[in-house]
Amino acid sequence: MTLDGFDSGRTARITSVNWAILAEDEGKRLQALGVDEGAEVAIVHRGVFGTRDPLALRIGNMTIAIRRAHAAAIEVEAA
């Protein structure tokens, strides 16, 4: 399952990231923020308008915002 379809409030572990569909600079930014295989994440908030963009993720002690298009490149499993 990809992160964009994962339920809010539940914790997931990233199993893989499809770096090929992300722009190089976007991929580097996500890696610098801790988005990589093995990291535990939780969706803490979704945008309120039609696209439900952006997603607020908790990674460790940080909360970051990513686009749903980026979340679609991230495969997760329930932790």
TrEMBL record:
Task: Respond yes or no to whether keyword Zinc is given for this record.
Answer: no
Signal peptide location in the record?
none
Q: Which Gene3D superfamilies match?
A: 2.30.30.90
| InterPro entries, alphabetized | Fe-transptr_FeoA-like (IPR007167), FeoA (IPR052713), FeoA_core_dom (IPR038157), Transcriptional_repressor_C (IPR008988)
Highest taxon in the source lineage = Bacteria
Q: Which keywords fit this entry according to its UniProt record?
A: Iron
User: Which part of the chain is the Ferrous iron transporter FeoA-like domain?
Assistant: 1-78
Name this protein carries in UniProt: Ferrous iron transport protein A
